[in-house]
Specification:
199 residues, 8-stranded mixed β-sheet, 39% helix
Length: 199
C-alpha cells in the first residue's frame, strides 16, 4: 500500500492487490472502533434506514444507472453525499445528474463528506470524461471549500484508477481524498468524522 502526499493535503491511493471478502470482514473485526462506531461507519456506505435516523437533506435522484443522495445522521459531523453507479455504461444523463446534484448540494452552503462508490462503474468514454473534467473545474472553488472529505471506492482496475485520480487532482486539489478498492479502509476513514472524533 502506498500514499502520495501533497503538501498539507493528501490523496491516498491503495495498491491494487485482490483482497477477499473474508479479509474485509477480519479488517473490520480487528478495527480499533467498537461495535457502535463500526455500525455508524457501515451506515456511511449502506442504504439509510429508519432506525439509524438518517434525514434526507436533498431528495434522492437516479437515472437508473446512477443514484445520488445527500443525508445526515445525528452521530455524524457532516451530511453525507453518496453517489453509486450500478455497472451500466456511463451516459450523458448520468453525468448531467451528477453535476446538477453537486450544484444543488453546494447551494446549501454547508460542509459535507462525499462517498463515490464506483466499484461497478465502467470506464467512461473520452466525451464523458472531458465533460466531467470541464464541469468539475467550474465547481472547483466550491467543492474545495465545502467537501470535508472525499472517499472513492473503485474496482481493482488500473485504467479506472488513473482516470479517477487524474480527474480528482484537477477538480478537488485541496480536499483530503482516499481512493481505494478496499471497503474496510473506506469505512475506517469515514468513521473518523463521527461527532466525537476529529478527522
Amino acid at each position: 500500500r502506498s500514499t502520495q502526499e501533497r503538501g498539507p493535503f493528501s490523496c491516498l491511493c491503495d495498491v491494487f492487490r485482490p483482497t477477499s471478502p473474508d479479509k474485509h470482514a477480519r479488517n473490520l473485526a480487528s478495527s480499533e472502533y467498537d461495535k457502535e462506531q463500526q455500525a455508524a461507519a457501515v451506515a456511511l456506505v449502506s442504504h439509510p434506514t429508519d432506525e439509524l435516523a438518517f434525514k434526507p437533506e436533498l431528495p434522492e435522484r437516479t437515472t437508473g444507472n446512477l443514484t445520488l443522495r445527500l443525508d445526515s445522521h445525528p452521530t455524524l459531523r457532516h451530511p453525507r453525499l453518496h453517489a453509486k453507479m450500478d455497472g451500466k455504461r456511463v451516459t450523458s444523463d448520468a453525468v448531467n445528474l451528477l453535476f446538477d446534484y453537486l450544484e444543488a448540494s453546494l447551494a446549501l452552503s454547508q460542509q459535507s463528506v462525499a462517498l463515490w462508490d464506483l466499484r461497478a462503474c465502467p470506464l467512461p468514454g473520452p466525451t464523458h470524461f472531458a465533460e466531467c473534467v470541464r464541469r468539475g473545474l467550474e465547481l472547483r472553488p466550491q467543492l474545495s471549500a465545502q467537501i470535508r472529505l472525499l472517499v472513492v471506492l473503485l474496482p481493482a482496475s488500473l485504467p479506472m484508477r488513473l482516470v479517477v485520480v487524474t480527474s480528482l487532482r484537477l477538480m478537488v486539489p485541496k480536499v483530503p481524498t482516499l481512493v481505494t478498492y478496499d471497503e474496510a479502509r473506506a469505512l475506517h476513514c469515514m468513521s473518523r468524522l463521527r461527532k466525537e472524533r476529529a478527522c
